[in-house]
Amino acid sequence: MSNPSDLLHAELRPYLRGYPTASVCAAMTWRGALHVEGLRGKGTPPATDALFSLGSLTEVFTAALLSVMAERGDVRLDEPLGNLIPLSLMSDEVARSITLEQLATHTSGLPHLPPNLDAAPRNPDDPFGQYSAALFGEFLRGYHPRRPPPHPSSESFLGMGVLGHALSRRMALNYGHLMRDVLCKPMGLLDTTARVTEELAPRLLQGHTARGKPVPPWTFPALPGGGALHSTVGDVMRFLETGLGRGERSFTKALFRMQAPRVKAGAFQRGLGWNVSQVRGKDVAWRSSVMGGYVGFMSLSVAADAAVVLLADHGWSLFAALRGRVPLEAQGLALMSRFLP
């Protein structure tokens, strides 16, 4: 990787100009050469071990949990929800036929957000924080799909929340402990957590709006599988490098499986938790997020032996939202394309 810092600065210059007070932590690896850097348009760049909310990047880790558990024999990808969620909580036979793979590829037919989200006390500063386990249970009991899965792939934050819940039930552990014990601790992801401890708290960067206004932290008591994780660029890169084949075989095999295209989703395909695009004729797995005052992007390509992570503490602008743009997504994909022949 020649002049990785120059490459990063060149690609991120438009973002840093548009969000001059945003702190960005970036990591790139190419053929085993790693570069990690903190960047900021104005002011002191962040420490590279800064902690960010991952937002919907969490979904890739939830899908990884599924793939690792399948590799261990704890679940099957084609296993229906009815085997994991009790009849008293989900009685509809069509809903119970949804498989874990369909949740991970967004082909379950579940809506993007819980239909009864508005039944929770409204709090725009933490929109999922009041969505309780009781309300989630009400949704499951009252969910009656019109037709059986699979459906055309359509993004479902709720579906990833259901996946996290189902895996937790199978192992009789809450999501945070399950993620810690099955995925994070064995892989050495010591800064990746669903709950920010007192030890980690000093490294957590505050989330902001696009204009730099602080945003209170978002919480996900009933749907942690969709957005609850926090991490550093170093930990996320360690996760991606395992997906490139550097790590214990049981984990590399599970993370390889996730990247295989399984269903069509408009301009790209989906693997388990990943979007998969063709870039210069090669498969590139990627995911982006804008949630709770944070922006994130991560991507890897086995063909290029390369990966990129970009995490920032400023959310999107209304202008970007109206144009359907996720900050850092284009820059992240542009960086990945540099590594492909």
Write the layout of secondary structure elements.
Elements: H1 4-18, E1 23-30, E2 33-40, E3 52-53, H2 58-72, H3 93-96, H4 100-104, H5 133-142, H6 157-171, H7 175-187, E4 207-208, E5 214-215, H8 224-227, E6 230-231, H9 233-243, H10 249-259, E7 263-265, E8 268-270, E9 275-279, E10 282-291, E11 294-301, E12 306-312, H11 318-322, H12 329-338
Antiparallel strand pairs: 1-2, 1-12, 3-6, 4-5, 7-8, 8-9, 9-10, 10-11, 11-12
Helix pairs in contact: 1-12, 2-6, 2-7, 2-10
Question: Could you give a short description of this structure?
Answer:
It is built from twelve helices and twelve strands. It has 341 residues and is α+β, with helices and mostly antiparallel strands. α2 runs parallel beside α6 (157-171).
User: What's the number of extended β-strand segments?
Assistant: 12
Give the strand order, joined by hyphens, for the main sheet. 2-1-12-11-10-9-8-7
CATH top level? Alpha Beta
CATH H-level superfamily: DD-peptidase/beta-lactamase superfamily
CATH architecture: 3-Layer(aba) Sandwich
Structure explained in plain terms:
The protein is α+β, with helices and mostly antiparallel strands. It has a single domain, classed as DD-peptidase/beta-lactamase superfamily (Beta-lactamase, 3-Layer(aba) Sandwich). Helix content is 35%, strand content 18%. It contains twelve helices and twelve strands. The protein has helices at residues 4-18, 58-72, 93-96, 100-104, 133-142, 157-171, 175-187, 224-227, 233-243, 249-259, 318-322, 329-338; strands spanning 23-30, 33-40, 52-53, 207-208, 214-215, 230-231, 263-265, 268-270, 275-279, 282-291, 294-301, 306-312. An eight-stranded antiparallel beta sheet has the order 2-1-12-11-10-9-8-7, sandwiched between helices. A two-stranded antiparallel sheet has the order 3-6. Helix 2 (58-72) crosses helix 7. The protein starts with a helix and ends with a helix. InterPro entries: Beta-lactam-related, Beta-lactam/transpept-like, Beta-lactamase-like_AB/R. This is Beta-lactamase-related domain-containing protein. Belongs to the beta-lactamase family.
